[in-house]
Sequence to fold (297 residues):
Amino acid sequence: MSSKDRSPDTATRYVLITPARNEVAHIGITIESVVSQTVRPLRWVICVNDSTDGTEAIAQLHAQSHSFITVAGLTIGGRRSFKNKAVAVAKGFEILAALAFDFVGVLDADISVGAHYFEQILAKFGSQPRLGLAAGRHVEWHRNRSRRVLSQPEDIAVGGNQFFRRACFSQIRGYRPLSWGGVDTLAGIMARMHGWETQTFPDIEYSHRREMGTEGVANILQTRWLNGVRDQKLGMDPFFAVLKAVRRLLESPLILGNSAWLLGYVCGYALTDDLEVPVVCRKFHRAEQMQRLRRLF
Fold:
C-alpha cells in the first residue's frame, strides 16, 4: 500500500483550505498536484466564492472521485479581494475544526506542487518544534513563460501556499480580512509576535501559475501601486521602503514599476483602512525590519 492510500498518522495529519474564485484555468492543475501527493491531506475543503466560470463544477467533479475533497460553495459578495479570501479561509476552517489534525495549509487555486511537497514540509515541522508557519520557495510563471523566483528572507514565509501548525493558526486566529491585501504577510508577523518561528525552505518549491496580485487588476503598474499601499498599511518603515525601492529599481517594468510601487506606498498614508492591521503589529513589523538592516550593515 502506498503512503498516499494510508490513513494519516499523528505526525502527518494535515488539512488544506483553498479559496477559489473564477480559477477555471488553473484549479484542475492544483487539484491534480494534491491528489498526486505521497502524503495526502486528511481533508481538503475547496471554498468556491461567487465563481461564474465553471470553477465549482471542476472541483465537484474531482470531489466525486476523491472522498477527502469537500467543495463548499460560498456567496460572500463584492469584488475579488484578499479580504474575501480571508473570509473564505475562515469558512473553510469552520468546516474542518471538529476534525483531529495537527497542521493546516492554505493553498491558492492557481498553485501546483510536486508529489513530495507536503511530505517534505511535514518533515521540517517534525524536526523544528517551534516552527509555526512554513512555505517552500515561491516560483512564478508569467504569461510569456518566463520564470521568476520570489526573493525573500528565509525566516519569513509569505505567498499563496502557507502551511501552519494548527496551534499557531488558532493562536493568531487565521487570516485577518484586509482591504489592501497582505493577509499572508500579517499572518507571519502575528505568528512571530507570539513566539513562533516562520521559515521559507529553498530546497522545496512550488509553482504559482501567474504573477502575484495580477488577477482582477488592469495592468502591472496597478499591481505595483496596490503593493505599495499594502506595504504601507502593514507598517513598513519609510527608510526600509526607500532601500527597497532602490534595490528593485531595475526590475521589469524598468523604473515605471518601482515608481508605481513607491507612489502607492506614499498614497497609503492618506488612504483609510480603519486600522485593520493592529498598531502593535505595525510596530513589531518595523522593529523586525530595523533588525534586518542592522544585521545587513
